[in-house]
């Protein structure tokens, strides 16, 4: 029964995506909404990305230095481990999980409110492909902005690590710099970017699906937001396992 329900939902999702990825009827209107969604979904999320990444970078550096690093390890171990964690997992996977709560619930509640207030029905009556008109700019906007958010997250995490060096005196700046530069593999950065592109698509498309297909009144909007966050988070975790194995 559960598998049957999943297959039906997945089929409805694919049918919706088929409508979404059609040629925009008015390219000028699409570009206008595209820029708006870039600002709402991407630019407005920069603050929380920088704040969380700053403290996570600082905490990782402190934990490695105080609890793992020993006299048998090189002094640059803390910086090296901080860099690897930020590049390989946190700035791409964990940050996208956090964004699924902020961005995903926002998308689902917005489209759900439009559905309950019959704004989507009004667009359909006017002969507009409401799925493409409303959802495609959100997907394109978040996928475009996610590499910038990943880059800012990584940089903010490194700044947080340096804050522990200069303010907390946990590690010397020279040792931290040596660790951040040790055996740097550029592919790790691009791996995080590639994974984040998939995660951005999952967040935007799944959240849009739950909001767009909402049935019921305003009470269901909250349930749709919850379902969107939970579903996108689970899909991010599953796809992270697959993509990490594929790209490594």
The total count of helices amounts to: 9
Q: Calculate Rg over CA atoms.
A: 21 Å
Give the total of domains.
1
Helix-residue proportion: over 70%
* Class computed from helices, strands and strand pairing: mainly alpha
Tell me the strand percentage band: under 5%
Gap between N and C termini, in Å?
36 Å
What's the overall average pLDDT, rounded? Answer: 90
Q: What's the overall geometry?
A: elongated
Following the backbone from N to C, one meets helices and strands in this order, namely HHHHHHHHH
* Strand segment tally: 0
Tell me about the largest β-sheet.
none
Q: Which residues form runs of ≥5 with pLDDT under 50?
A: none
Task: Write the SSE topology.
Layout: H1 2-20, H2 27-42, H3 46-68, H4 77-116, H5 119-125, H6 130-166, H7 173-181, H8 186-212, H9 219-247
Helix pairs in contact: 1-6, 2-6, 3-4, 3-6, 4-6, 4-7, 4-8, 4-9, 6-8, 8-9
What does this structure look like?
- This protein has one domain (27-247).
- Helix content is 83%, strand content 0%.
- It contains nine helices and no strands.
- The chain has helices at 2-20, 27-42, 46-68, 77-116, 119-125, 130-166, 173-181, 186-212, 219-247.
- The longest helix is centred in the middle third of the chain and has 40 residues, at 77-116.
- The mean pLDDT is 90.
């Amino acid at each position: 029964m559960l598998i049957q329900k999943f297959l039906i939902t997945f089929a409805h999702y694919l049918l919706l995506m088929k409508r979404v990825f059609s040629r925009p009827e008015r390219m000028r209107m699409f570009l206008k909404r595209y820029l708006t969604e870039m600002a709402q979904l991407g630019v407005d999320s920069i603050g929380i990305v920088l704040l969380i990444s700053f403290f996570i970078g600082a905490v990782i550096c402190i934990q490695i230095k105080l609890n793992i690093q020993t006299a048998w390890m090189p002094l640059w171990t803390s910086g090296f481990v901080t860099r690897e964690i930020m590049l390989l997992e946190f700035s791409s996977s964990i940050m996208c999980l956090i964004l699924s709560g902020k961005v995903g619930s926002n998308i689902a509640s917005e489209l759900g409110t439009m559905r309950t207030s019959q704004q989507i029905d009004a667009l359909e009556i006017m002969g507009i492909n409401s799925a493409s008109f409303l959802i495609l700019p959100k997907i394109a906007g978040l996928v475009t902005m996610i590499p910038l958010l990943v880059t800012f997250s990584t940089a903010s995490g490194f700044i947080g690590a340096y804050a522990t060096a200069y303010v907390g005196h946990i590690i010397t700046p020279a040792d931290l710099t040596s660790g951040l530069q040790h055996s740097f593999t550029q592919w790790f950065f691009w791996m995080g970017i590639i994974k984040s592109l998939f995660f951005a698509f999952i967040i935007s498309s799944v959240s849009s699906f739950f909001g767009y297909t909402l049935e019921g009144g305003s009470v269901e909007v909250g349930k749709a937001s919850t379902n969107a966050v939970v579903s996108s988070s689970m899909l991010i975790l599953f796809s992270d396992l697959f993509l990490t194995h594929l790209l490594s």
